[in-house]
Specification:
binds pyridoxal-5'-phosphate, 12 helices, 376 residues, 7-stranded mixed sheet, single chain, globular, alpha/beta
Amino acid sequence: MSERVPFRDLRRDWAEIGTEIRTAAERVLASGRYVLEEEVDAFERAFAAACGARHCVGVGNGTDALSLTLRAWGIGPGDEVLVPALTAMATWMAVAGVGARPVPVDVDERTLGMEPQSLEDAVSPSARAVIPVHLYGAPVDMEALGAVARSHGLRVLEDAAHAHGARLNGRPVGTLGDAAAFSFYPTKNLGAVGDGGAIVTDDEALADRLRILRHYGSQERDRPALVGVNSRLDAVQAAVLRCKLAHLDDWNERRRATAHRYLDALSDVPGLTTPSWPHGADPVWHLFVVRSASRDGLADNLRRGGIESAVHYPLSAVDTVPFADWGARGAAPRARRAADSVLSLPCHPHLTTTDEQRVIDCVREAVPAPDHSGIA
Ligand SMILES: *Cc1c(COP(=O)(O)O)cnc(C)c1O
């Protein structure tokens, strides 16, 4: 029996760059300066530069990056925020967390990103902002979505938690809307060794307000200007992230190579739909997601072959307990169909070619052979 192919094993990341990470973390531990200060500033500058944005504000996690931006825009009870019906629950929770109402927008049948006409259809007079998600690492069609947003005066907050380093028509995500929220959860393309998040924006007033909000509403000690929270990017995480940022392009390139090997080997498998992305998008393959009507059977077959897979996401948010009573049921048929058929295959910078070949062979074996009998 050959070895298991784990969906993601962060020990392989450690095996490659553990020495660098240890040095970065020790520098902070020895410095006695653990909250905000220079390590966080240095990472914020580096990440803003990597995104081609003017400002970066580090916060405690990706969910806070989303919700603090909404708060900074004064969005709260009585307001609506448009969100994709297929995304991580965090996108929805961030909206609900500020007291606003998340309104589902159905996704594109092919790319599974937020669909522009569905956005148009979902806008109401209470709508204040839209959160397009660069799902699975593929930039959404921001040109079309941005046009709809502009025509209704909506602010655009990119949820870039899957898409560190992805580009659309040569422009990095993070600069395609009014602001962008990133998560540095350990398994993301740029991952910390714990929680972390950041907002990237060109809007200086927004960045200033976020710096105040994340730190008890205060710029000056004990003299708060706003009601804020405590959601700071940890200095140890900032040091680790700065170290890992130097590897981001290389690691994304390795994800891309894996994805293209899968695409080459799996695109002709009958009954299996391989990923699509909008024209001009350069995805970073946070996840490689196929679709199959017999998704659960395929996952079982992979498991028997020692290969771990995952489902992103098994339910549209409109079918989850907290949002079931929000009048959203029945909406978003494409997102709901996708939730029943998506399967994420292992795709990360530390897959070996042997791992990849095993995934490919196993998927090809698991999907029923085409019927050439000529009988319909
Ligand atoms: C991970 C994730 C988040 C939230 O990030 P946390 O750091 O876990 O709070 C938000 N949106 C999407 C799409 C995510 O995948």
